[in-house]
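Researcher: Structure for this, please.
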Amino acid sequence: MRIRPLRRSISTVCALFFLALSLILSIVTFILFSSSMYKRYKKELTSIERFLETLIDNDDMAACAQTQTESEKYRAFQVFLDSFIDKYEDLRSIYLLELLDPGDPIQVRVICASNSTRKNETEPETVLHLGYGEPDWYNPDAVQKLRDALSKNQTAFFRTDSSSGLDYTLAKPMYRSNGDCYGLLCVNLPLTDLNEEVYRDICISITIIIFSAVFFIVLILLWMRKNVTDPLLALEETVTDFAKASDGKSNPDDLVYRAPDIHVDNEVLSLSNSITKLADDMRSYASKVLATEQEKQRLRDQVLLDALTKVRSNTAYREKTAELQASIEKGEAEFGLVMIDINLLKQINDQFGHEFGDEYIIGAARRVSEVFANSPVYRIGGDEFVAVLTGDDYENREVLCKQLKDILSLESEDEDYAPWQHYSAAVGMSVFRKGDDVSAVFDRADQAMYKEKLRMKADREPENKAF
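Model: Predicted structure, token format:
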């Protein structure tokens, strides 16, 4: 792998860092300035809206909107709006709108709107009047925002893009005295000045940041060379030499590290000391690794073997089921499960004690292991065992299961054996079929074993045998 010089990397990182810092500060400047301006605009628009509300007779305005006829109060308010928009140069427009049904092609109809003197004199055809509305004359996105404001019954602030330019709009639902909403009062402020101010401030900020970045990069690089890069280069040379000298060495005493002479009082010196200590610790650690691995293997063997019967444990069975499931998913599965449940364990424990109950379990497990000599046997419960049949045992599964049943049957009836040697168990077997998972095979084997257990119990009850 090609190694990049640390000095070059530091220079690159510094340049990228200050570039990112410039970008971040520019974004933050834009966000903070925009936020401040929007707060100011919201306050200004809200003040205007509250003032206008005191001048509007909502019932009269609603009647004008409904009849499309101007009243005396309407005309007086219209005159006021026109004079107000002439005096308030920061405003783009003020208007009352009526929202029509969503299916109406017009969507929005004017109730009342401000028209400047200049517009009335030079562009009379663009003057908005009561009842004005044409299909698609109002921005569809703005229409949706107006509907949202109306549905939420609250004042909304949003940006709108119209033929006049980009605006910041306040929209306030207006209500008759009976509580019915008849339209929305909208006040627009142009955003052109805001954008110009933001871009100017960003340019100034970036210029200051660039000059500051160049100055600080030079200072940082000089400082880094003296306190970091030169000492690290010396440290890197000694560590590389140590690695080459240690390659292929099996004797921990050969792992000798010689630290460089570093004249700095920072983390590089601490790192050099730590590497020296690490090299020393490696010698003692290497001798312990083998012993630790051997101990881990011993503990794993204990976990995977059942302490009482010395067959494999339930933990080992869970690992085996994962292995079998993987073979199923690969389409390579061919196995059978034999479920063995020992009978009469409770009676042995109750009549002769748990010591003989344990001997009973051990003897039964030994018989199972002897029959399925080529297959792993697992103890998955107190008196439950599973044998996983593959290979020759799988091919001879019927013979082996019958052999196990015959052995247990003969020993359970042999009067020469002690009661805790009369081994008896219910045996159920199932084999993997296409579409199965491991649990399906296990469930069929368990069901077969359970049927066998019920049959054996029914056979024992008429005999009323005693221990």
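Researcher: Any notable elements?
Model: The CA atoms of residues 98 and 183 lie 4 Å apart. The beta strands are 93-99, 108-113, 156-162, 165-175, 181-190, 336-342, 377-379, 384-389, 425-431.
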